[in-house]
Structures are given as structure tokens and as C-alpha cells.
Amino acid sequence: MVTDSEAPKGSFRLSMLLYDSRYRSMTIQVFAFFVLMFGAAWLVYNTKTNLEALGKPFGFDFLFNTSGYDIAQRPIEYSSQSSHLRAAMVGLINTLILAVMACVTATVLGVFAGVLRLSNNWIIAKLMTLYIETFRNVPVLIWIIITSAVMSESMPPPSAFRGADPAASMILWDSVAVTNRGVYIPAPLVEHSLGSISILGVQPSLDAIAFLVVVALSIWLNRRLMAHATNVQNATGVRPTTWWKSLLILFVPAIVLLYALGFHLEYPELRGFNFSGGLQMRNSLIAMWIGLSVYTGAFIAEIVRAGILAISKGQSEAAFALGLQPGKTMRLVILPQALRVIVPPLISQYLNITKNTSLGLAVGYMDLRSTLGGITINQTGRELEGMLLMMLIYLLVSLIISTVMNFYNDRVKLRER
Fold it and tell me: For strand 182-185 and strand 263-266, is the pairing parallel, antiparallel, or unpaired?
């Protein structure tokens, strides 16, 4: 074998690809790459040949055929005469809605449970331990089915809300009705709508877009205000009063926009045999939301507890010596430093929530798995194309979540000087 020091400096020879350590590793990698590509090409060719033998040519033209089935939870316009592509878009939006809702509630629940498990109060700490150990050691599907059964069997029917002395009553100032058909909540409406635009067949409301833009600008302006106040404090030693300016920046623009649009709420009302008006959150959505939240929240609680314990005890002692109360010490000193430990495993939990939304098939929640990966495949017989497309969509969604969270992780990590 020829080593780097012993290799002659003459012309290149083919034998050097195997016997010269400068080229051997590259030769092996190129060979392995061609073997991998050959195996992939053979697999694709073999699959294509077998499908054609069965009279099933590979293609995605089935997406434009009429779906022929209904979807109860429809965030965008859809009917049984819509295409399979439209049904897949409805399922994808339902998946994203559920994933966002579950990520938010699981995070809030996990942070509270993780902090309270470290409480000096013995009862609170043991109750949080009981919650964490119980929920994370039972499959999430069981919690989803239990929640669905409770909602369907224990909640009153709409008829129980009828009469002068009804057996059931609405809650929150007669604005929310919890029934065995779902939860009815007020629906936000505007009198002077800005209309909507069409993006890839989806028509998002310009009112919602305008509201989100105003909120984003308000948050950005408030951050600039806080940065200016910090600069003034660093220069003079005195921090200017900013609380009332922050309130004006954060709330006044949004309130003015809502007033200009004529914002109001449409409350659900019992008419006939069911409630009408407002928004209906079906039992399948409630079961998935609660099941995923309490299950993943138990894992996030352990992540938060580990992050807090990773911070030196001297940080808390220094904060107490400065006169900070335990609550402010946790919020201003411990948790900001613990984020560098908490965020990386938290990304995995968000990805798990997104992928676990596919369990909605068990309770009738029409997500991407139930539409494209379920009914559409059964009707068209295009299982390979449907599964490949569904895998690609889940991959893209997971990569987007991972990219956003990694960007946030880079923003909160400690900077060494």
C-alpha cells in the first residue's frame, strides 16, 4: 500500500484509485453511490413494470377526478363534487390546524407541569409527578379514544338545552354550548369585509391577513421600543417608562382595525334539533386536541424540568440575594437560560405531534391521512402514488417546523464573549 509520504510525484495511474490512500476513500464512495443509484433505478423500474402488468400505470392524474365523499370539518370550501386534490388540501389544513392547537396547549401545559414538579409544595410536586408518569406511559391513541368516548357519551344532547327549565345550559355568559355533537363557540365576523384572494385554490380572508400584519408590525414596533429603552438605560442608568407606550402599540392598532372592519361575534343558538350559528368544534377535533396535548405535555414537562435542573443553583441564589421573588426568578433568570437545553428536544415533540395527527382516523377526524391516505386511495386504487405524496407532504411540513424551531434556537442560545 502506498501512503501519502511514500507516493511518487509522477503521473496519475488508474491503480492509484485502489492503492493510493489519497484516492481510495473517494473511489469507494463513488462506487457505493453508483450501486445505490442502480438499486434505486431497478426498484423504480420493477415497480413501474408490475403496476403496468396490473393495469395501473403510475401517475397523479387521479387527483383531478371527483372525490365523491363529504368532509365534516371543512376550513375551506369543499363538496363531494370537488376533486381529490381539493380533499387532500382540506385534510392538510385540518392537520395543520390540529398540530398548531396541540403544540400551543401542550407547551403551556408542559411548562406549568415541569415547573410545578420542582415546587417545594409536596402535594403539588407529587400531583405533577402523577400526571407525568400516568400520561406519558399510556399510548396516546388510548387517551384520544377515551376523550372521544367522554365527549360522545357524557355530554348532553342539543335537546337538553331546550325548554323553560332545560337540563343543560350554555356556559361563559351563554356563548358556548358543550354537547355530545361537539362544542359550539362564537364565530368572529366582520360587516365591512376586505374580501379574499385565491392562492392555489385556497381563498384566505384579507381581513385575517390584515389583522395578522397589524399584529406583527405592532410586535416589531414594541421590540424596537424596548430596545431603545434598554439603550437609554445603558447610557444614563435610568430606564424610561414604557408600559403605557407598549399597551398603545400592541393593542390600539388592532382595535382600530377591528372597529373599522365592523368586527362582531355570532353566537350559537338552538334552532330546531341542533345549534346553528357560531363555530362547531366537532368531537373528533376535541378528542384529538386534548389527547395529543395532555400526552405530549407530559413529555414536554420532563424536558422543562431537565432544562431547569441544568442551570446552576448559584443562579437562583444570586437572584434571591438581589431580592427577586421565586416567581420572577424562575421567569426572568432560570427559564431564559434553560431554553438552550429545552428547545432542541422540544422540536422533536412538535414533530411528534404533527405526525401523530394521523391517528385522527381512529375517531373520524378528516386529516391528511384520512383523506389522501385513506378514502382517496381506497376509491382510486392509487395506493403507491397516494402514499408517496403523503410522505412528501409530511416530510415538507416536518422540515419547515424543524427549520423555524432551529432558527428560534439559534436566537435564544447563549453567546460566548
Answer: unpaired
